[in-house]
Amino acid sequence: MLVNIKELREQYGLSQQELADIVGVSQQSLSKYERLETEPDCKTLVAFADYFGTTVDYIIGHEVKPSARRNAEDKISKREREFIEQFRKLPRRDKKKIETAMGIYLAK
């Protein structure tokens, strides 16, 4: 059923354990999904689609091309995503300080 999960996982540079942690399943379950030995529940299918910015139809092989909802995020690393997530949690004044410092650094 999940014909495109392994391809997407590898494209994003994720291990089975990393992706399993992200969607909330065990590594063993993810391995079985990739080998088409078992199928996930609907909640897990949606978690895969949401993470990869595509549709459940693409995940299960009913859509030829992935959704184009993802843009530059496709190319960022796991560490960059972690920085973005941490940045989003900061108070506005701290974000402003980081933006100012980044502007100064990039202007060099």
Q: Which features does this protein show?
A:
mainly alpha; 108 residues; single chain; 2 domains
Written description of the protein model:
This protein has 108 residues and is an all-alpha fold. It folds into two domains: 1-70, 434 Repressor (Amino-terminal Domain), CATH 1.10.260.40; 76-108. It is 60% helix and 0% strand. The protein has helices at 5-11, 16-23, 27-34, 42-52, 56-59, 78-89, 92-106. The longest helix is centred in the last third of the chain and has 15 residues, at 92-106. The radius of gyration is 17 Å and the shape is elongated.
Instruction: Please identify the structural class as seen in this structure.
Output: mainly alpha
What is the CATH class name of the largest domain? Mainly Alpha
Distinct helical segment count: 7
What does the main sheet amount to? none
The separation of the N and C termini measures: 50 Å
Beta-strand level of the residues, as a percent range?
Answer: under 5%
| Helix content estimate | 55-70%
| SSE topology string | HHHHHHH
User: Any guess at the CATH architecture of the largest domain?
Assistant: Orthogonal Bundle
Number of domains: 2
CATH superfamily of the largest domain: lambda repressor-like DNA-binding domains
Radius of gyration: 17 Å
The overall average pLDDT, rounded, is 84
Could you tell me the number of beta strands? Answer: 0
Shape assignment = elongated
Say what the CATH topology of the largest domain is: 434 Repressor (Amino-terminal Domain)
Uncertain runs are none
List the helices and strands and how they pair.
Elements: H1 5-11, H2 16-23, H3 27-34, H4 42-52, H5 56-59, H6 78-89, H7 92-106
Helix pairs in contact: 2-3
